[in-house]
Write a structure and sequence with these properties.
Blueprint: H1 2-5, H2 10-27, H3 34-43, H4 60-78, H5 90-98, H6 121-124, H7 127-146, H8 151-160, H9 164-189
Helix pairs in contact: 3-4, 8-9
């Protein structure tokens, strides 16, 4: 059990992604988690809109994957959690400190993953919290549909299939992330 709960080398997850992508390409499927939202809405009866009126059962394997991801994440965060917080660079710690955000040093300071200054119910009810949640959620949802898929779909599946639109989308994702990190986040939290 101790072996499983320790941080693994990045190449292990990279190799597993390669195996999954080869299987999906071989089976003629495409990977993208945002597609599961369409399938869930279609299965839930939202078929009066043409976008949701399709055979959602053709994506049942993706729904099983998403459900397995949720269950696997719950198991990993409760039963297999490392006792050490996530290691981040000194430069990131300094950038967070400039925004009055402390990097977690112990499990009680954010389960080693997320800073309590941002991820708590008090922040969620503040104006910056509402802006980040509502505006960010809208932009992610709109952007995912406008780009024709999410980051995992384009960056993993689209790039492995050598699709130019996916390369353009991934470049856009990175530009958006940089703008959020260096321009918008300091404005919202400042």
């Amino acid at each position: 059990m101790e072996f499983i709960s320790q941080p693994w080398h990045w190449s292990i997850s990279g190799a597993m992604i390669v195996v999954v992508m080869f299987l999906l390409i071989y089976l003629g499927e495409k990977f993208g988690v945002s597609s599961s939202f369409r399938a869930i809405c279609s299965a839930g009866g939202a078929k009066k809109w043409s976008y949701f009126n399709y055979d959602w059962k053709s994506h049942d394997w993706l729904l099983v994957f998403v459900l397995g991801s949720i269950i696997g994440g719950a198991i990993a965060s409760t039963l297999l959690a490392s006792p050490q917080p996530v290691q981040i660079s000194d430069a990131t710690i300094q950038d967070l400190a400039a925004l009055n955000i402390a990097a977690p040093q112990t499990l009680s300071e954010g389960a080693g993953f997320v800073p309590q200054e941002i991820f708590n119910f008090q922040f969620l009810t503040s104006l910056p919290g509402i802006l980040m949640l509502v505006l960010g959620g809208f932009l992610i949802g709109f952007g995912t549909r406008y780009a024709g898929g999410c980051t995992s779909g384009h960056a993993i599946s689209g790039l492995s299939n050598l699709q130019l639109p996916s390369l353009v989308a991934v470049i856009g994702f990175f530009i958006g992330g940089l703008l959020m990190t260096h321009l918008l986040m300091p404005l919202i939290l400042g």
